[in-house]
Amino acid sequence: MNDVLLIALFAFLGAAAAGLLGAGVLRLLRHRSLVVSLSVVAGVAVTAMLAGTLTVARAMFLSSHDLYVVTTVVAMAALVSLATAVLLGRWVAAHSRELTLATRSFGDGGTFAAPVGQPTAELAALARELAATSAKLDSSRERERALETSRRELVAWISHDLRTPLAGLRAMAEALEDGMAADSGRYLRQIRTEVERMNGMVGDLFELSRIQAGSLTLTPARISLYDLVGDALAGVDPLAREHGVRLIGDRIDEVPVEVDGKEMSRVLGNLLINAIRRTPPDGTVAVAAHRSDGGVVLSVTDGCGGIPEEDLPRVFDTGWRGSHARTPPAGAGLGLAIVRGIVEAHAGRAEVRNVQGGCCFSVTLPAA
């Protein structure tokens, strides 16, 4: 038993010395190629075995011939191990270079295409993650292009919509100043109308900037959805009468919600005004509210005739108008973007879908 322990001790000391030396070499070469690291690992393993074997052999006083045989066997094992390590390292390094080139392609704006046949499970998992990241980047780039297009359209539309009333205001002011206005009262009323319209546009821009900057401050309170909808319907009733549109709000459940009453009134007002202006005379705009599994759903259905399917994903984008009409009251295309921003600030979501004869805008809010 003592001989076995002594042999184990000598073998451990020899292998430990080789292992410590190999660890130092690995630390010095840690930034080199994987081929070098694998070769060092294989060399350390064989050297540790050789050192332990030779230490025990010398302690056992083996003959020179036996010691030569043992050394030769270990040396052949070392050559095979090193060759295997080099081949494996070159194989893994080659696939790593392919993965690096593929990664560089989608980093430059392309699409990641994973090389076929990854040598290790880790590299295969990395390739799958890179492919998923590439898909997300493609989606983000597409979204960014759409947002940039919306921003450019918004700047152009706002510039046009502000320049047109300003030109009219200038002409009317000059006419009043020169005493050329036959009906000064009508001119003053028109000036006030244009100023109010411009003030509404500027207010929408300010509200949207607060939403996009994340500085929208909410003051939530527990209120009845029935009262909220009732106030909104009363506010837009004159506009509906002017356009000959009937308002229907007889499917409103009395469910409580925890929202900012002022901001949610703006949401309902924007949806209702948009629906009234898009609905032809003698049409109807219906408002409904009910509790669902996902929370409280508030919907506004109009008779606009529907939205083209290709435009549905852009409805809530900044600057979207649904048409290229340049005449009032087309607006600046900010109302629905404000709706989505306020609803998302309440941890809800805004959606739109086509229904027979029109479209349905729905707002889902968390139940109180």
Oligomer: single chain
Query: What structural class results from the helix and strand content?
Result: alpha+beta
Strand tally is 7
Please indicate the percent range of residues in DSSP E strands (runs of 2 or more). Answer: 5-15%
Largest β-sheet summary: 5 strands, mixed
The mean pLDDT is 77
Terminal residue distance:
78 Å
Helical percent range?
A: 55-70%
Unreliable spans are: 324-330
In sequence order, what are the helices and strands, one letter per element? HHHHHEHEEHEEHEE
Major sheet strand order: 2-4-5-7-6
Q: Can you describe this structure?
A:
The chain is an alpha+beta fold and 368 residues long. The chain has eight helices and seven strands. The chain has helices at 2-28, 34-59, 64-107, 121-178, 184-213, 225-243, 261-278, 335-345, and strands spanning 221-224, 246-252, 256-259, 284-292, 295-301, 349-355, 358-365. The strands form two sheets. A five-stranded mixed beta sheet has the order 2-4-5-7-6. Helix 3 packs parallel to helix 4 (121-178). It starts with a helix and ends with a strand.
Concise synopsis of the structure shown:
With 368 residues, the protein is α+β, with helices and mostly antiparallel strands.
Helix-strand layout with pairing:
Blueprint: H1 2-28, H2 34-59, H3 64-107, H4 121-178, H5 184-213, E1 221-224, H6 225-243, E2 246-252, E3 256-259, H7 261-278, E4 284-292, E5 295-301, H8 335-345, E6 349-355, E7 358-365
Parallel strand pairs: 2-4
Antiparallel strand pairs: 1-3, 4-5, 5-7, 6-7
